[in-house]
Amino acid sequence: MHLDTKMKYNQGLCHEKREQFKADLDNDLKLINKLRNDGKLGKTPIIVINSFNKFWLEKATNILDGKRHSGVVLTKCSCNLYKPKKHKKVFNKMFPGCYLEKPGRHHPYQWDLVISKGGVKC
Length: 122
Fold this sequence. Notes:
Number of strands: 3
Radius of gyration: 15 Å
Shape: globular
Distance between the termini: 17 Å
């Protein structure tokens, strides 16, 4: 799974933008779970999410019945995309007018991994 960082949440106050973002993530995970349960993702799909977004990781663990692990499986280059300056830029583009308190997610300890094998804990 990959988050669409080109998405813009323009409507409402910052907390409303954040809630819409969370609702979109929740809906995406529910859709993926439905597609998996309906057999549309193959016979034995494995879903992997690597992120620093704690809400997304928690929801993925619950909705997809996955197991959460510390660390990343992404290349160092991928993590380096979220150094403070770039993280602020992406955040400001997605959530215009909102403030990011602690920018920067370029250290592996800031990322977690969720692996789901369709109801079988990994």
